[in-house]
Amino acid sequence: MSATDRKPVPPFHLAFPVRDKEEARAFYAGLLGCGVGRESDRWIDFDLYGHQVVAHVTEDAGTRATNPVDGEDVPASHFGVILDWDDWHALADKLKAEGVRFLIEPQIRFKGQVGEQATMFFLDPSGNALEFKSFQDMGQIFAR
Fold first, then answer.
1. Which residues contact residue 78 at a Cβ distance below 8 angstroms, ignoring those fewer than 6 apart?
2. Which DSSP letter does residue 39 get?
3. CA pair distance 20, 141, nearest whole angstrom
């Protein structure tokens, strides 16, 4: 099935551990601009570009296994969103201006190859790795 034959992508749901709910709120709602949904004293829902991600307070946040990809140590456990090209660049500029420390600086990965993409990795305050990426040609997302 080609990318043009696909149905619209339904929102996904992801739950992940954080050490502090208010710290997570400041990062996801404050820095990334996520909307806030329901919450309790131990969890909070965020609207991450139309997807429901839920931060659960736990003492087990932030594990760090990596895998080498295109010369970088990519966190094996990470999540994020594929943005439009201009939106990705605007977010990268915003994060740089805010002084976010990147695990992998904003860059073009797989340059000149199938799957060429803009990518950046950074951590939330609990040590969860996030990757935001973009493709100039969205048909390359699943290209082999």
1. 121, 128, 129, 130, 131
2. E
3. 34
Instruction: Please tell me whether residue 48 adopts helix, strand or coil conformation.
Output: strand
Distance spanning both ends of the chain, measured CA to CA: 13
The predicted structure's pLDDT at residue 61:
67
Tokens of 134: 């973009």
Q: What is the pLDDT of residues 36-80, one digit of tens each?
A: 999 999 999 999 999 999 999 988 766 677 888 888 888 888 999
* Domain extent listing, the chain: 3-58+66-140
Asked if residue 135 lies in contact with residue 81, where contact means CB atoms within 8 angstroms, the answer is: no
Measured at the alpha carbon of residue 63, what is the angle toward residues 60 and 67, in degrees to the nearest 5?
Answer: 160
Helix (H, G, I), strand (E, B) or coil at 94: helix
SS3 66: strand
Q: Which fold has domain 3-58+66-140?
A: 2,3-Dihydroxybiphenyl 1,2-Dioxygenase; domain 1 (3.10.180)
Per DSSP bridges, beta strands 66-69 and 35-39 are: unpaired
133, 117 Cβ separation under 8 angstroms: yes
